[in-house]
């Protein structure tokens, strides 16, 4: 990386206008939302998107019966886990169309308005523009309602992701590292080269939308207050991309209030965002990290906890190394090369399952991980097959458990989604809050393989080297 591009975050803040704040913005946002009787529906392409919210439901299915329950619930917000980042483009499109159709049908039946947020990675990986295009197309076809713009808001403050000057950054040790220079931009499936988000839009749309066509909401405009932002939003037409620059929640709250005001004047928007925008736009209050007693299943205290690690990014590997140094941790590594050999798959998995059950029953915390050497090929479809094979093996471990763990941690977006939906058979879970910044905790529902279990969704790209270890230490007190 080019260290000349690194800028001290504090120095940047010091040179900018002060945050705009007349007090109580978040409460105003919440009051406005309550008066509208409108549902905010977040389509989450992996389970980590609830990392900023609490006391809401996340659905892992989108049949009309389940959607009716969600529309009837008192909360203004609910999530639908799509897991599309772990699927190919054809299935991602199909799922977004199905959800849009079912949501529109139930909303019409209930007589309620709704807003769609396509939540994706704060490091810009995922199916953009496919997902927002499909959602906008379906809503227009079914309801006649068209969108004036789609807002691109990758800022995720809890994970140190901010946007300034149309460039998206990762904060590391107070340095601003452009995300297009990180390992995440080199993703085998969702990689990109552009640093300026207007140029990123041009790159991702393959020139269909030119960089110069994008609207931009500059940080300096946000710090002049909601009226200045609303003026930009009122000029949006034709589902134009709108790039949003924000450094803090105070900035995001100004944006959210301006959006409500523009929507009140007839504007309609759809969103491609990371997790922080949802908290602001839905008026979610701050909450302390969950205490130990919320992180261990009642009645299962004598058993060990289960940590499933599938993510291959270097951040995860460093975190895993730190965790395995913790006293009493049992490491069970699945050899990926053996998984890919049909003659050895069953024997390798059987070894891990047998030992996992034995150690959990004995009260030991067990880490089940895939071997760290990444096996990758140039073909995107084959890379998907390899990742799905590994994730499928981790799911099979969970499915085969006979001992109820006192907690479950799943590390990595695809891994945590597959463990939730296939390993634990969750249809609806309650988001309790977070164990640490950007690390959400679900409580599994009655239908799950293990009901009433804290399920900790640990993103692959969140936290320092000790973050996974610190989560386990917090649980163990």
From TrEMBL:
Residues 306-468 form the Four-carbon acid sugar kinase nucleotide binding domain. InterPro entries: 4-carb_acid_sugar_kinase_N, 4-carb_acid_sugar_kinase_N_sf, NBD_C, NBD_C_sf. The keyword Nucleus does not apply. Residues 40-280 form the Four-carbon acid sugar kinase N-terminal domain. Transmembrane segments: none annotated. Pfam families: NBD_C (PF17042), SBD_N (PF07005). Keywords: ATP-binding, Carbohydrate metabolism, Kinase, Nucleotide-binding, Transferase. Belongs to the four-carbon acid sugar kinase family. This is Hydroxyacid dehydrogenase.
């Amino acid at each position: 990386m080019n260290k000349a591009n690194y800028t001290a975050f504090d120095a940047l803040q010091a040179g900018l206008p002060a945050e705009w704040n007349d007090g109580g913005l978040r409460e105003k946002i919440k009051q406005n939302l309550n008066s509208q009787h409108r549902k905010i529906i977040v389509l989450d392409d992996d389970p980590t998107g609830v990392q900023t919210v609490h006391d809401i439901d996340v659905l892992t299915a989108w049949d009309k019966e389940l959607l009716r329950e969600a529309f009837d619930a008192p909360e203004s917000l609910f999530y639908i886990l799509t897991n599309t980042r772990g699927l190919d483009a054809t299935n991602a499109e199909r799922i977004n169309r199905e959800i849009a159709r079912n949501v529109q049908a139930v909303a019409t039946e209930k007589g309620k308005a709704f807003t769609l947020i396509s939540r994706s990675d704060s490091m810009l990986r995922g199916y953009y523009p496919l997902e927002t295009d499909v959602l906008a197309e379906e809503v227009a076809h079914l309801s006649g309602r068209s969108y004036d713009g789609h807002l691109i808001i990758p800022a995720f403050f809890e994970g140190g992701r901010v946007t300034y000057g149309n460039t998206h950054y990762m904060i590391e040790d107070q340095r601003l590292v452009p995300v297009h220079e990180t390992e995440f931009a080199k993703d085998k499936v969702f990689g990109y080269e552009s640093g300026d988000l207007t140029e990123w839009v041009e790159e991702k749309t393959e020139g269909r939308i030119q960089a110069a066509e994008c609207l931009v909401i500059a940080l300096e405009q946000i710090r002049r207050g909601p009226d200045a932002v609303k003026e930009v939003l009122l000029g949006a037409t034709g589902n134009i991309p709108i790039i949003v620059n924000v450094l803090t929640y105070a900035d995001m709250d100004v944006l959210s209030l301006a959006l409500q005001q523009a929507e009140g004047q007839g504007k309609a928007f759809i969103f491609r965002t990371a997790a922080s925008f949802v908290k602001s736009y839905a008026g979610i209050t701050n909450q302390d990290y969950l205490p130990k007693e919320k992180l261990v299943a009642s009645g299962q205290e004598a058993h060990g906890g289960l940590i499933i690690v599938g993510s291959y990014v270097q951040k995860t590997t460093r975190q895993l190394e730190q965790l395995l140094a913790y006293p009493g941790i049992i490491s069970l590594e699945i050899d990926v090369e053996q998984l890919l050999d049909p003659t050895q798959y069953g024997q390798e998995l059987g070894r891990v399952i047998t030992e996992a059950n034995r150690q959990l029953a004995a009260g030991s915390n067990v880490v089940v991980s895939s071997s760290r050497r990444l096996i990758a090929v140039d073909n995107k479809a084959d890379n998907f097959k390899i990742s799905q094979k590994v994730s499928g093996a981790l799911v099979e471990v969970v499915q085969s458990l006979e001992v109820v763990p006192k907690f479950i941690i799943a590390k990595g977006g695809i891994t945590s989604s597959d463990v939730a939906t296939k390993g634990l058979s969750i249809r609806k879970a309650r988001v309790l809050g977070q164990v640490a910044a950007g690390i959400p905790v679900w409580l599994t529902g009655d239908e799950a393989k293990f009901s009433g279990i804290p399920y900790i969704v640990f993103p692959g790209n969140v936290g320092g080297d000790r973050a996974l270890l610190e989560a386990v230490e917090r649980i163990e007190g």
